[in-house]
Amino acid sequence: MKAVVKTGKGKGLLEWRDVPEPKVGPGDVKIKVKAVSVCGSDIHIWHDAHPYWPPMILGHEFSGEIVELGPGVEGWKLGERVVSETRTGACGACPACQAGAPQVCKMKRPPGIGRDGAFTDYLVMPARLLHKLPDNISYEQASMIEPTACCVYGLIERVRINAGETVVVQGPGPIGLLTAMVARAAGASKVIVSGTARSAGLKLQKALEIGATRVVNVGEEDLEKAVLAETHDVGADIVMECSGSPGAIEQSFKIVKRLGKIGVLGISGKKEGVMVPWDVALFKAPAVTFCFSSSWTAWETVIRMISSGILPVEKLITHRESLAKWHEVMTVLESGKGIKAVMSPEA
Ligand SMILES: [Zn+2]
Ligand SMILES: [Zn+2]
Which helix (H) or strand (E) holds 14? Predict the structure, then answer.
């Protein structure tokens, strides 16, 4: 089968190669990939700006059909439509795993990052990580369950949004836009999405289409003023930092209300760290929650939300292509001219 392989450590080093089909071990299922969406971290791995353990096939946001059951697998059938969580390798024994948070285990090696992923025809995953897809969720929608689960985990399970709260989402990339969509579905009264001039056309426009009540192009407008005007000079109940930009990270503390909540979903890529206005933060006393990855419960919640129609995630798809066009697709996304791209190995 053909696969997009990150062949070693360094910039670039992605190759379209022939690889053998994977073999199932005990407890595993073999999945025929039906759709795989491109994540920002795939682009970061391409450019050596995200952890990864090569050589491995790229791709962790996927959906597919079960085509083989390994020894000992129970409760699953051939032909079932599934998605899979990505916490392969989590040890099950460390304090994080024992506390019910295997997604932050330091031994975790997700598909597409620390083992073979889904930019190919078939991959093997442990059956215990699967979630069954309802018939009314398409494979294309399902390929976006993983990133959406990170947003639901962050905003609903960790930051604990309440209905009626005002939410600022910084960074209108896929994670920011999905977070904005989740905020509306969870009952936010206002959802303000901010982005740079580069994102003003496509992404901020999309934010309005999917339920943002206000967008701010920070190249033209002062976000702090805009947020204060929208919140009667109080500040936002919740700021979801989805940009990873040092300027926006610093800004989070200025636009959140006193005793408000800041949720962090964006990776900065800065090895040297970023600035936090420490005393502003201290005096305002917000709760800051880092929201890495997702939980089993968030996956189930997302599946119910998409199935019921309250999270139309497919609205973020700007590109639908065959996997063979992966290089073109990743180049377009990197240039900022796309939001979510879904690829199919079959097309
Ligand atoms: Zn992802
Ligand atoms: Zn562990």
Answer: strand 14-18
